[in-house]
Amino acid sequence: MCVALPGKVVSVEGKKALVDFSGNQVNAYTGLVNVNPGDYVLVHAGCVIQSMKQQEAEEILELMGEIDS
Amino acid sequence: MNKIRMEHGSGGRSTGELIEQIFAKAFSNEILSAMEDAAVVEGTPRIAVTTDSFVVTPLEFPGGDIGRLSICGTVNDLLMRGAVPKYITCGFILQEGADTVQLKRLVNSMAKTAKEAGVQIIAGDTKVVEGNGGIFINTTGVGFVPEAIDISSANGRAGDVILVSGSLGDHHAAILSSRMGIKNTITSDNAPLTDMVKKLLDENIQIRTLRDVTRGGLATVLKELAVSSGMQFEIEEGALPINLQVWDFCGLLGLDPLYMGNEGKLIALAAKEDARKALEIMRSAEYGENAAIIGEVMEPETESERGRLILKTRIGGRRVLDILQGEGLPRIC
Amino acid sequence: MRTMEDIASYLREYDGRTLKLMEVCGSHTAAISKFGIRGMLSPKIRLVSGPGCPVCVTPSAYIDRLLELAKEKDTCVVTFGDMLRVPGSRGSLSAARGEGASVEMVYSPLDTLKLAAENSGITYVFAAVGFETTAPVYTLLLEEAIRGGFTNIRLLTALKTMPQAIRNLMQEGGEIDGFLAPGHVCAVIGSDAFLPLAKEFQIPFAVSGFGDRELLLAIYGLVRMAKEREAAVKNFYPSVVTPQGNLIAKKKLETYFMPCDAVWRGMGNIPLSGLLLKDAYKRYDAGSASLIEDKKLNHGCRCDKILTGKLMPQECPLFGRSCTPGSPQGACMVSYEGSCYQNYLSDGGNA
């Protein structure tokens, strides 16, 4: 129900950001998240809905470790 | 004249001018220039015939146009039976208001593509109807199948290897990008596969089946082949060639590359012992640089396995694939 | 630390008490089918699809109203691709478009602004469906419409919120041992939004992303928690989800929308499970409040039981027989993310 994709902010102009998804460039509205060029963001229906932190595989498996113990 | 008007379809002077200035000029060859009611040509006993109509919009898109498409689509259909394509006919239905400058570009593109594919356009027709400037093209293709060749969708056998000639979904992604205004550098892969098929057959690769991957995408086409051959097909998700930009385009719109069409890619079922060689040949042929072995044909062990298509997913799951249901529209929810 | 292979083995060989785990996000339904995950789980782990497909739970009165609007003079319905083929009681938007009705498909609701600016004589009504992931996007459309002084933009809303629907489902006797929480809804409302539910019903929630590895990990985490009857919310999508979510988005939702009762097709009316434009913004509404009727289910249709996890698609007598993607009898087969549609795809129609 929530088709959204992570992309990289190329540039910011006014209330929109040019976000790149492996070469696809979408002008996404930034009214919901403050962004800067170089940020990784989640875009849904032409809007940035959240900024992203790098999720390392190890991080997740550490979460797993929490469960195991 | 820069817009098509009803009188261009009347059969009188305007029609003559249209044919002369746009069609005949671009398609010039001895047979067509004779302007007979029918073209009488030489051939050999096993005739391959196919027809297709082209209604795509926009008329011109990144990497191609409806003209190029109308030649590639029909030429490729002939090639898929192992025929040597030779002759094309084309019928145009032009809506009033169609742009003649654009029409000229499209027709020139057809001529160029025909040359690349090694075919001649030897008959044609034009009609004009009321409407909004649309252009629709039908092409019929004639080719000849050498005596020893038997390539058909029913021929797949247990042990055969499944190959695809390149990346999935490019054409559909290019068209949708155009229609939905999403900027990228995806181009349609519309291309005639004459060189690739000729090389495969010249090198005596044991080809059971060839099929071009068009509407409905790889999954639809493979499923149809599985049903025709009565075998079970298994393909590996990790082996599928997909351009990263197309992959993310699909991610943006909730689309599945397995169900997105191409216009210049083929599937080949080849005998196991010829698999490596077939792959090398495809990769060295025009338009085949991303060819890959993606799966195999298996003997069904139960009735329910007959005609089944399975995708082995990257994480070790199994997914049964059917033909495309519905329209494959972009989603957000 | 475990590897993906270890996790896959654990799930395949699980032999503890039978667990019924529910996912409540249409994109999770689609992703689970896409990766062939169900077939990787032990038969003692039953993964069921809940009411997470916004298209499936939209009453047909909503589609009917959109059709009326599309046929009105100087009115154009703007929509996501999802809604185009959904049938109301008199056909779909796609069919109506073929008969001359005015319908535009877009990627973003904000694309409406360009259309409205180019044709000031036409009223553009956006088919505003979705959950909490999409609702904030509509607030941005509203803000732009206000800022730009547009008088020809409206929303016809069918917005739903998750937590109340889950509460209702559990209160109606849903025997669910754990929930896979929707990753992108949580990106907006925060994973803490599901904490009260975890405590109230003493069951675990695992927030999951949408990739193959992420889903497998989250399911593994959920199974481990459910086995121990752990009443907690664990976040397996930390790159995007935080306990508080997106505060700006939440604030905008509060500014422009208010909770309302909503009809969920197949489930009936669930109090305070929807969102409606506040009175101050009613001039941008196309009459959403009046759409509260629910069509009776077709004879034999079991969508209500499917949506609440009480029945698996294969257990519905119509599945694969009179109810197929080509001729859907109910909401679960209509939408791409409906659990019956997805099951039909992955089983190839072998009921």
Which terms summarize this structure?
B: 333 residues; alpha+beta; 60s Ribosomal Protein L30, Chain: A; Phosphoribosyl-aminoimidazole Synthetase, Chain A, domain 2; 7-stranded mixed sheet; 4-stranded mixed sheet; 9 helices; globular; C: 351 residues; alpha/beta; Rossmann fold; 6-stranded mixed sheet; 14 helices; 11 strands; 36% helix; 18% strand
Please provide a written account of the structure.
The complex is a heterotrimer of chains A (69), B (333) and C (351). Chain A has one helix at 57-68; strands spanning 4-13, 16-21, 24-29, 40-44, 47-51. By secondary structure, chain A is an alpha+beta fold. Chain A has one domain (4-68): SH3 type barrels. Chain A has a five-stranded antiparallel β-sheet with strand order 3-2-1-4-5, with no helix packed on it. In chain A, strand 4 (40-44) and strand 5 form a beta hairpin. Chain A is elongated, with a radius of gyration of 14 Å. Chain B contains nine helices and 13 strands. The longest helix of chain B has 18 residues, at 100-117. Among the domains of chain C are: 60-161 and 275-290, Rossmann fold (3-Layer(aba) Sandwich); 303-347, no CATH class. In chain C, strands 4-3-5-6-11-10 form a six-stranded mixed β-sheet, sandwiched between helices. Chain C has a five-stranded parallel β-sheet with strand order 2-1-7-8-9. In chain C, strand 3 (75-79), helix 4 (93-98) and strand 4 form a beta-alpha-beta unit. In chain C, helix 1 packs across helix 10 (212-227) and helix 2 runs parallel beside helix 14. The model of chain C has no long low-confidence stretch (mean pLDDT 90). At the A-C interface, strand 5 and helix 1 of A face helix 6, helix 8, helix 10 and helix 11 of C.
Order of helices and strands of chain C: HEHEHEHEHEHEHEHHEHEHEEHHH
The fourth-level CATH homologous superfamily of the largest domain in chain B is PurM-like C-terminal domain
Tell how many strands the DSSP assignment of chain C holds.
11
Rounded to the nearest angstrom, the radius of gyration of chain B is 21 Å
> What distance lies between the first and last C-alpha atoms of chain C, to the nearest angstrom?
40 Å
CATH architecture of the largest domain in chain B: Alpha-Beta Complex
Major sheet strand order of chain C? 4-3-5-6-11-10
Q: Which CATH architecture of the domain at 60-161 and 275-290 in chain C?
A: 3-Layer(aba) Sandwich
User: What gross morphology of chain C would you assign?
Assistant: globular
Could you tell me how far the N terminus lies from the C terminus of chain B, measured between alpha carbons in angstroms? Answer: 48 Å
CATH topology label of the largest domain in chain B:
Phosphoribosyl-aminoimidazole Synthetase, Chain A, domain 2
Report the order of strands and helices of chain B. HHEEEHEHEEEHHEHEHEHEEE
